[in-house]
Specification:
Four Helix Bundle (Hemerythrin (Met), subunit A), about 350 residues, about 0% strand, globular, mainly alpha, 2 domains
Amino acid sequence: MNFTYSRFFISLNWTTLVFIYLVVIAGSFVRITGAGMGCPDWPKCFGQYIPPTNENALPPDYKDIYASKRGKKIERFASFLDKIGFSDIAIKLRNDKSLLIEQDFNAKKTWTEYINRLFGVLAGFGVLFIFVSVLRKYRSKKLVLLATSNLIILVVQAWFGSIVVATNLVPWTITVHLFLALVIIMLQLLLVMEVSNTQSKKIMATSKIKSFIWIVLLITFVQLFLGTQVRESIDVLVKQGYTREYWVNHLGLPFFIHRSFSWIVLIGMGYMFWLNKKSENVQIVSTSFYILIAEILTGVLLAYADMPGLVQTAHLLFATVMFGVLFTAAIRFGKKEGINA
């Protein structure tokens, strides 16, 4: 069944995609500013929909209150892990008393985390409105499946966000959080392509370019997680008192794999860029190559220069945008027949 989608519905899908990316950017900024625990509870912040700006607005024993709440939430999550066979992780969570140590109130960190959550709410409402619109007006099997899946994953992501807060940013929870975000990005991109009628416009490309798109997409996917592991390792080193000049020697295998994969991606994308210019000259391939160059440059600045923390946010932004562009290209390269784009 073919639908003529309204401009509002198309705009809603694009706007929701933008907000999802804004959540990624805001989340990275929260991480580099150390504001992840600026709100000790979830979904509210210090028990309020609009957080306080001064510690005097909080009860004197607020640390004990939120430590107690966190302890109960950790226990519930540990029980869940026991049931699904992750008892070792559950035991570590129960025995890690550092998770119950509350930070001092910091208005800047609180509001940084709060703004991050606002973007999350806006993205969530966008996904919800898309779901409702699909059920009310555009009931194609494909749209229903995509909109429903995206809403379910978003709910899981929201629940897991509370776990990330409850476990005081335990590293592996942040990695899972990123994975769910990438799934949401992929589902939303599929929705955008569907309502914008771009999936039906397949891109003409050689089999080599198609193959390289999928290979580079897979490596980029892995790179995002390796980058998260590197960031987590740096956090540990900072806590141990190591300064930047000692980081590379102490970051371990994930950093070296992450760095090596960057060269592999650059060579693969460079070859694909050359093939593309030589034959079809598909714009989306050129775009992904230029984004890769920007990502690698920010990565070099992070590794070898004492650059501001915002470079970390730019690095993650370029990586996730390139992932989105490559995913879009991979989907549109599904068949040989088609048109140039």
